[in-house]
Amino acid sequence: MSNQNNFIDEGYIKYNINWINEPLKVTVPNQLMEWRDKMHELKQIGHYAEINIGYGNISVKTNEGFLISGTQTGDVYPIQPKDFTLVTDYNIQANSVTCKGEIKASSESMTHAAVYEADSSIKAIIHIHNPKLWNLLMDKVPTTKKEVPYGTPEMANEIFRLFKETKVKEEKIIVMAGHDEGIISFGTDLNEAGEVLLNFLAKFN
User: Fold this and answer.
1) Are 82 and 125 in contact (CB under 8 A)?
2) Is the model's pLDDT at 14 over the cut of 90?
3) Distances (CA, A) of 12 to 64, 67, 160
4) Where are the domains of the chain?
5) pTM score, whole prediction
6) Which of 19, 65, 94, 161 has the fewest beta carbons under 10 Å from its own?
7) Cβ(90)–Cβ(98) under 8 Å?
8) Distance separating alpha carbons of residues 159 and 122, to the nearest angstrom
9) pLDDT class of 13 with cuts at 50, 70, 90
10) Are strands 46-48 and 53-55 parallel, antiparallel or unpaired?
């Protein structure tokens, strides 16, 4: 962790949540769990033991909404279907998210929603923490403004800005300058989103 003071609110849900606590009625794809566990094995998704907070998440778009790993599941391995929830609705202006499942949606759900809204061809998102990559890629790939915190309407609007003003659609990666160590990759499927990260990890890690 680069600066523990910057992680005081890490992992906490900042939006208004409408959580429908019930078993998932959609199937969690095996590929979603496999990619999540792969990122966990590579320590790109995990848990900061010293402050007892998880980091990183993964999602995939479905016809019913998007499936995303639940809040504070960073230390879960191997991940199970019950560790995912379905975001069925969101309102960026009202800072609200509706989800169904046995666990609340990740604190990054609003950011995932903004990426999916910005480009309808995107079907998968992986959010990791990697201090080395974060520092190396800062402002070299599409980067959000440092003053914008994660999991907020402001971050969602930053995502929209990047899609308008940068080549993020082609690069498929975003550095979150205001979210220590935070990086997002995305693609038309999980393999594409995952390969973007694996390529950067192979090159720089």
Assistant:
1) no
2) no
3) 25, 19, 23
4) 4-204
5) 0.93
6) 94
7) yes
8) 13
9) low
10) antiparallel
